[in-house]
Amino acid sequence: MERSTVLIAMFAALIAALGLVPKFSLAFGVPITAQSLGVMLCGTVLGAKRGGAAALLFVVLALAGLPLLAGGRGGLGLLSGPSVGFIIGFPIAAFVTGWVMERVQSNVLTSSFIASFMGGVIALYIPGVIGMALILDKSLVAAFGLVSAFVIGDLVKVVICGFVTQVIYRAQPDKVLSRT
Amino acid sequence: MIALYLSQGLSFAKFGARMLWPLWPFVLIIVLYHGITHDIAAGGEIILRMLIAVALANLVTMTTALNDMIDVLMGLLRPLNWIGISTKPVALTIALFIRFIPTLIERGITINAALRARSTGKSGWRIIVPLTLSVLNEAEHVANALRARGGVGTNEEG
Description:
The complex is a heterodimer. By secondary structure, chain A is mainly α. Chain A is built from seven helices and two strands; from the N terminus they run αββαααααα. Chain B contains eight helices and no strands. Chain B starts with a helix and ends in a 10-residue tail after the last helix. In chain B, 20% of the residues are buried.
């Protein structure tokens, strides 16, 4: 019980800290931040319930006004802005990542790739694109066109997430709760 | 709306305006899109609606202390108590979370400095593995410390 509580709180804080990692830009100028990588890691390391709870805690406190999102954003305004779907999608993404991670019976690297792709890309972009389409009053296809450039960045994160999870699993297998 | 912001003083209004700045790529996209489709009125309406909605929500955030927000949140969770789910761990988790943000940022900076001392390359994303591992280790210590001091507690123990 104590362990879960602390892990949830600390991984939420980890997502916040990763928002400060300097973003690097892809060749054509699309910035990618480490924040959604943190969300994927919540899922692959903590599993569905704890990982989802950590991301939910992060999002709730960001909405309550802490400037936690990359670029120092935070507050209720996020709910009426175009990225509302991505914000709401964070806990869903972490949960789905963890859920898939707990069920794919492959080695840690492959499972993490599959899980973080299903969670951090598919499960994140569905609410993300719907939210953007609603706020900007565009069709779903047009909204997806707007964010499609970011998909590449997120695919890079899927790869990084896979390797990071594998290294963590090698260093401390008992700490990767999605595997125990 | 603007009057509401100005009523709190000029620097407050300036800060409010800066909070809207991250929206500019979306404004640009809508302007371009509706410029091409010659439907300027609809585009203007979308932009205005979005800016006003965000600005009003920001106003609530800017005039409400974090403690009050958390109180509201705990109030919303209170019905969980009636069906026997304790909300105390939730409050504790929120407190731990806020407590650990600066700690982890500081640790990130330390790891960054350590990596840079050993290599000339940029270290940005390489801090993620050591940072995550240190979180996992630290969590163990904090959990033991919590347990030694009576655990996360429930409403009954009170």
